[in-house]
């Protein structure tokens, strides 16, 4: 039995140390016209690429991808008063003060859409989801309080600026996933029944803490596990893990990792380096041909002088996102 356990441990260690396949960069696109910068979410809805900023509470951006330099065109909306959530008073007050100082009191940190053209924005400040119809009408989803209660009971949503960071919706608009950012990170799932949302068998899919080695380009220093973006594609979840500079495919049933791919080689090229802790990958959308990854540079200038938000287009891995290699 001990020999078997030792062999399993060695196999697990070898798998963890196997270098990840690097995604191939097809294009790099600076985005002009995002007045507040801070690109925090991307979604491809009916052939239109949309972006959201966590510093602006009243607009989405339609990206004109045909222009030589991508242009962001604002679509404005009026969000109703945010619903109350069972986040503690102290955490809500710190978030409110931060929003007054830096802008973006709702702190939209993720974007998704369904096949009907509805857009879904997750508010980190309120642990809530806003739905925008194709006509731009805004409505908060009726999420159960159990989402926040169960997340906090599992060690998530406990720290300021480490709340909900990603959202994914299936094409039918009947299943919704949320990503808790860090310390602890996790995945939550809800199902729609008519006009309300429920946790079927529990809200929490994944809750995990700890640290793990970062890319070799950063010296392999251990960094907190995190999620900064979330996408749904072909009955799989895809997580953007910015500290590790990778995208991982996960099972819908329990959020277990099936396969990961790295984008560290491109992201950490010398010409693309930002000051420490800036230029983070915050936005993710996955389709059959590849992945869109958006960077939140918070107005910082990178090594080559570029100061605008950036969107990268990576090719799908050889054999597609569903390959088992």
UniProtKB/TrEMBL annotation:
<protein>
    <submittedName>
        <fullName>Esterase-like activity of phytase family protein</fullName>
    </submittedName>
</protein>
<dbReference type="InterPro" id="IPR027372">
    <property type="entry name" value="Phytase-like_dom"/>
</dbReference>
<dbReference type="Pfam" id="PF13449">
    <property type="entry name" value="Phytase-like"/>
</dbReference>
<feature type="signal peptide">
    <location>
        <begin position="1"/>
        <end position="16"/>
    </location>
</feature>
<keyword id="KW-0732">Signal</keyword>
<feature type="domain" description="Phytase-like">
    <location>
        <begin position="37"/>
        <end position="184"/>
    </location>
</feature>
